[in-house]
Amino acid sequence: MYPFSFTKAATTREALNAGRNGGRYIAGGTTLVDLTRETVEWPETLVDISDLPLREITVTERGGLRIGALVSMAETAANRKVRTTYPVIAESLELSVSAQLRNMATIGGNIMQRTRCTYFRDVTAACNKREPGSGCAAREGFNRMHAVLGTSYACVATHPSDVAVAFAALEASVHLLGPDGERQVPFADFLLRPGSTPDREQAVRPGELITAVEIPALPRPLKSGYLKVRDRQSYEFALTSAAVALHVRGGVIREAKVAAGGVGTVPWKLPAVEQHLIGERPLEALWAAAAAKAAEGARPLRHNRFKPELLNRTVERQLRIVGGTK
Ligand SMILES: Cc1cc2nc3c(=O)[nH]c(=O)nc-3n(C[C@H](O)[C@H](O)[C@H](O)COP(=O)(O)OP(=O)(O)OC[C@H]3O[C@@H](n4cnc5c(N)ncnc54)[C@H](O)[C@@H]3O)c2cc1C
Ligand code: SF4
Fold first, then answer.
1. pTM, to two decimals
2. In this structure, which ligand is nearest to the CA of 131?
3. How far is the C-alpha of 162 from the C-alpha of 165, rounded, in Å?
């Protein structure tokens, strides 16, 4: 055990002051406590933010949704507005982790969670993400769960969050509050690809606090859903997943929002699939042709050569389910 201090912030100002002085925010604690116990991370000061007033889900002026950073995964999944307007968010959460942990874990903590690469969590292994410059044990090691898209020589780890895949598909944005004030970052820029600095994972500046995730208003009716393929039916991370939202009017697909999980170093938006769908009639032949573009550019590793094909099939199946011709 190593010494660390613990403080509970009563106000956002108190939290930001502690954050500015190097304090590390802790919300539900379901992942940071594990990482600390495993000595993967060594925060000197933990700042408990669980009392801050960031627990609301509200409809924005433009008709989108704003989910407070401290709303639990379970509350978000159960929220009536979320379930009726963006079922893809509720489904991605219900297919995540366990019921007990969903009660504790928060939306802010979820999108900030770190990779589940086993070498990252094994402090005896080489890992550029944990210890820059030490190498990547996964490249030549067991890499069945690893990424095939967005990888770099330095790191091939996947981003593990399910709801982040739904947020990426829906083109959400993240509200941040920091020493320099408030800002809003598009979800596409929030999680960073590894490049040569895999230790930098999010576009969060030192001391910044996530206050909310905002989902833009999308045309109605919108049908959406999430499909997760994994080795066992619960309590398991995705081998592949697909978040799909479709707006069909006058018998034609007018909007298509598609992203994949389990395959990218970040949740993987699929613009080529979306473009293939827009302007088309939602007929049976369309889904496979669109999904065939999902794995474009994939670079499999030794143990995950099955992923590009599995990705195409996952996307195809979810398009068919949401598109209504299953
Ligand atoms: C066994 C197990 C299985 C899991 N399976 C899944 C799964 O299938 N799918 C899935 O998506 N997830 C899964 N998870 C991950 C789980 O969803 C996360 O542990 C959880 O969402 C983290 O939320 P938290 O509030 O507990 O975060 P914490 O542990 O409190 O914090 C996590 C990180 O976020 C930072 N942070 C938290 N809140 C803020 C904020 N408001 N502003 C800035 N920084 C912040 C913390 O500093 C820390 O770095 C699993 C976890 C476990 C332990
Ligand atoms: S894939 Fe990334 S997280 Fe895993 S060992 Fe390599 S550098 Fe570390």
1. 0.98
2. 2
3. 5
